[in-house]
Amino acid sequence: MSALDRDGVVGVVGAGTMGQGIAQVALLAGHPVLLHDAAPGQARGAADAVAGRLDRLVAKGRLGAEEMKTALARLSAAEGIADLAGAGLVVEAVVEDLAVKRRLFAELEAVVGDGCLLATNTSSLSVTAVAGALRLPGRLVGLHFFNPAPLLPLVEVVAGAASDPGAVDVAYATAAAWRKVPVRCSDTPGFLVNRIARPFYAEALRVHEERAADPATIDALLRESGGFPMGPFALMDLIGQDVNEAVTRSVWEAFFRDPKFTPSLAQRRLVESGRLGRKTGRGWFSYQEGAAGPEPRTAEPVAAPSFITVEGDLGPARELAALAEESGVEVRREPAARGAIVLPVGTSLHLADGRPPGGAAVQFDLALDYRAATRIGLAPAAGTSADAVSQATGLFQAMGKKVSVIKDVPGMVVARTVAMLVDLAVDAVAREVASTQDVDTAMRMGVNYPVGPLEWGERLSASFVRGLLDALHDWYPTGRYAPCPELRSRAAAAEDVISS
């Protein structure tokens, strides 16, 4: 598998921010680069902008002055499509409009050689559809860079239905030679990252719409308990509410309105109101000068219980018994079918598993790592006493955790979000959209998840995730939470092994 030769000319069509970033990446990898844009003078201005970026890298000590001079000697502005005739690779980064892209590639095919590899940087359109009008559709692949292209490592290498395997191999090897982290995927709505990441936003929006918790608290739980670097509401504000909603709506429509991808009415109203996030000064949160940062709901300090009783196996939360002992709380143990922590007042604490706790009980949310987590969510059932909530709060505070008490909602926040991410990831692998390794790599490198969803699912067990989603499906019988067939199969196989 060989990459494009170093002396092979790379053409970049579309001289906006993404096109400039891709040009910079190819340039620093050693290629001659031609920048083209349909708008008169735009390509020249973009080349100057790339030169400015490289100059700033030199000033920061990240690039040598001589290396910059050599690189800029390889960069040219192409005033017309015909100037790209000698290119070995042309990457398109124009507006996300299928007709525009198809027309552009037809024009390119008329001037470049038959051996020229063509690539689209589309994030939402079908690569197969983009290639549909070409005489040689096998030469076109998807090369989806993430913005900003010079900084973010991931590149999704997308094989359309007609893409030649050899063309995909060259694209993959070239991205790797450009010091990127390429992952392979088939031409599916949203590719990998935009497909699998939808629940990170969707479940947060759903919990908010049910008035179980406010955006700042949901963000804090996913950051400080789930281990995600940024909460979904802050991230939607950063991306832009209009952009984020458009991607969700695009994936939903492309999957024939599959309920797993249903857009949020709350987000639609935000977009309609013009509160698009940072770029307009207000989204879920305010970014006006002097505005206070969002503050999650945090329980006041209370006394810890003197002892707890751990019944059965706490499963993914079994580390809590050791943490309680280390914090000075006596831990008593008793056998039981369902794992639980029983407080001195007799109230049970259960890990959120999708089922309503029932009676007088308190759910606690999932954590990526209970020892490292700095915040835990609690959800008391309607009949739970104030003393029980206080003892549950004090228990986790004794372990060094902040506590956010939210409304009782099945699956709480982290647990339901992670379960849905795992389900979509398992389904993608089962449908041969991508390999297990590429799915986890894409989610770690593309959206900075603390661990790949498939690895996280292995830690939790297929049975736990399947059971949580089944319970959610019983509570919300719309199909949104129905576990995919492959997840059911994995859970059944694991249970067969245990029973034998």
Kindly describe this structure.
Helix 1 (17-28) packs across helix 2. A hairpin with an 8-residue loop joins strand 6 (140-145) and strand 7. Strands 3-2-1-4-5-6-7-8 form an eight-stranded mixed beta sheet, with helices on both faces. It has a seven-stranded mixed beta sheet with strand order 10-9-11-12-13-14-15, sandwiched between helices. It has helices at residues 17-28, 42-59, 65-72, 98-109, 127-131, 165-177, 193-196, 198-209, 215-224, 232-239, 241-254, 265-272, 319-326, 386-398, 414-430, 436-447, 453-460, 462-475, 485-499, and strands at 10-13, 33-36, 75-78, 89-92, 117-120, 140-145, 154-159, 181-186, 307-311, 330-334, 340-342, 348-351, 361-364, 375-380, 402-405. It is α/β, with parallel strands linked by helices. It folds into four domains: 10-187, NAD(P)-binding Rossmann-like Domain (Rossmann fold, 3-Layer(aba) Sandwich), CATH 3.40.50; 195-280, N-(1-d-carboxylethyl)-l-norvaline Dehydrogenase, domain 2, CATH 1.10.1040.50; 307-405, no CATH class; 417-499, N-(1-d-carboxylethyl)-l-norvaline Dehydrogenase, domain 2 (Orthogonal Bundle), CATH 1.10.1040. The chain is elongated. It is built from 19 helices and 15 strands.
